Amino acid sequence: MYISHKSNVIQSVHETEWQCRRKSKGLNKSEYWTWLETIKDADGNPDYSGETGYTIVECIDEDIQTRLIQLSDYITTEMPGIPKAYNIKYYDSKRDSEIDGVKSHFIGDDEAKDARLLAEEWKRIREQRTRLLAETDWVVIKARENGGTVPAAWKTYRVALRDIPAEQSDKTKYSEITWPTRPE
Questions:
Q1: pTM summary value
Q2: Which residues neighbour 115 within 8 Å (Cβ) at sequence distance 6 or greater?
Q3: Distance CA 16, CA 176 (A)
């Protein structure tokens, strides 16, 4: 039995790994087989190393109940095609929306999970940077409409915002980012 999860939310459970992966990706069978051809290595074997967004773990039938019972922050839910005896548990996002820091009870590819969490942090950072840049567009527009130049302080601020990914690439959390000071 294979279990696919993302941010500790069970995506799919299936007897075969390929079906579990297919359902997690939301692909029909023909889409899955087409996608699989695109990730084969030189020997013709699938290379899943670039795949992110979820983790798939294999469980023997006797281990599934034990593994799923460990999920104390989850609620019991039925899943289609899964025996009720397994008491599949889902993360209840309505009960607790803060999932950062929730440790997975699954044994899986921690590198993929870490990469996904880092990508989510940087997505949030880039969204904030884009918002801050958009808030300063009026300065550039006003200067251009009046035939003048953008004040140096605003140029410096906007460049500093654009340089955040390159200059602070070692940061792993949104809270670690040092944001430039907006000119007055």
A1: 0.42
A2: 52
A3: 41
> What pLDDT score does 84 carry?
44
Q: What is the pLDDT of residue 100?
A: 40
Q: Dig out the tokens for 102 from the structure.
A: 């929730």
Residue 74 burial (10 A CB sphere; 0-12, 13-18, 19+): buried
Confirm if 51 and 68 have CB atoms less than 8 A apart.
Answer: no
- CA 140 centroid distance within chain: 34
* pLDDT by 10-residue block (mean), the chain, 184 residues: 72 81 85 85 80 73 55 43 43 38 46 77 90 92 92 94 92 91 91
The 3-class SS string of the chain reads CEEEEECCEEEEEECCHHHHHHHHHCCCHHHHHHHHHHCECCCCCECCCCCCCCEEEECCHHHHHHHHHCCCCEEECCCCCCCHHHCCEEECCCCCCCCCCCCCCCCCCHHHHHHHHHHHHHHHHHHHHHHHHHHCHHHHHHHHHCCCCCCHHHHHHHHHHHCHHHHCCCCCCHHHCCCCCCCC
- The pair of three-digit structure tokens given for residue 31, joined into one six-digit string: 């889409």
pLDDT at 72: 38
